[in-house]
Amino acid sequence: MQRDHYFDAGVVQQVTHNLNIGVDSFYRYSRQLIDEGQFGQAVIFTPFNYSQGRLWGVELSSAYHHGPWNTYLNVSRGQEQALKVTSGEYNFNQAELNYIANNSVYTDHSQRVTGAAGVSYRFHDTTLGIDSIYQDGLRSGFANTDKLTPYLQLDLSATQALHLGGFGELDLRAAVLNVLDRQYEIRDGSGIGVFAPQYGPRVGAYFGIAKPFRL
After folding, report:
1. Model-level pTM greater than 0.90?
2. Number of domains within the chain
3. Does residue 165 fall inside a structural domain?
């Protein structure tokens, strides 16, 4: 059974009428840390335990709005490390078990730096936006001692509000994901409990219709 000691502290400051800035930090110490891996030929998640784990992170956030403009920027730094596999050992090779028993290793979902930013502009009933995400790369290689290449994804969006009299309001929405069509790997099939590669989405266009209801 996993047991945790979790500490969190943060503050949000309204710098001006239009600008908010926040910082949040946390630390967690775990005994019998539960993790999941994709082991064997059938790529399904199988839980296992580490004897102990440590997770910490810091996030900086900001939001600015002025008239029709809205922007945001979030950046985080963190990591999770664990020591000694205590259940499901049969899923690991002996070399990995020996290494993890004597060295703290990064968990497969540990990532050093992540970020997100976006800006939108509203003109009458039309809102245009651009969003981006940055990922430093998940762990890979023997006992997660390596990491994948960082990547950046840009998305575009547009929303048009239609006023239809007695029928009310209708929102038409469109979005283009990964507009630069960057090809990147989320996982490469190596690392602790990772036996299949995973890729980010290629460029794609999506359309939708929403009908707001107000009570």
Report:
1. no
2. 1
3. yes
Radius of gyration of the chain (CA): 22
Q: Report DSSP state, residue 40.
A: T
pLDDT digits (tens, 9 = 90+) for 2-61: 999 999 999 999 999 999 999 999 999 999 999 988 876 666 788 999 999 999 999 999
3-state helix, strand, coil in the chain (%, to 5): 10, 65, 30
Q: pLDDT tens digits for 106-160?
A: 998 889 999 999 999 999 999 999 999 999 999 999 999 999 999 999 999 999 9
Integer angstrom CA distances of residue 201 from 154, 186, 197: 11, 10, 13
Show Cβ contacts of residue 16 under 8 Å, excluding neighbours closer than 6 positions.
none
**Gap between the Cα atoms of 37 and 48, Å rounded:** 8
What is the distance between the alpha carbons of residues 52 and 92, in angstroms, rounded to a whole number? Answer: 18
Question: Are residues 129 and 102 in contact, defined by beta-carbon separation less than 8 angstroms?
Answer: no
* Residues in contact with 108: Cβ distance below 8 Å, sequence separation at least 6, in sequence order: 35, 37, 138, 139, 144, 187, 191, 192, 193, 194
Classify 89 as helix, strand or coil: helix
* CATH number of the domain residue 54 falls in: 2.40.170.20
Assigned domain for 30 exists: yes
User: What H or E segment, with its residue span, contains residue 68?
Assistant: none
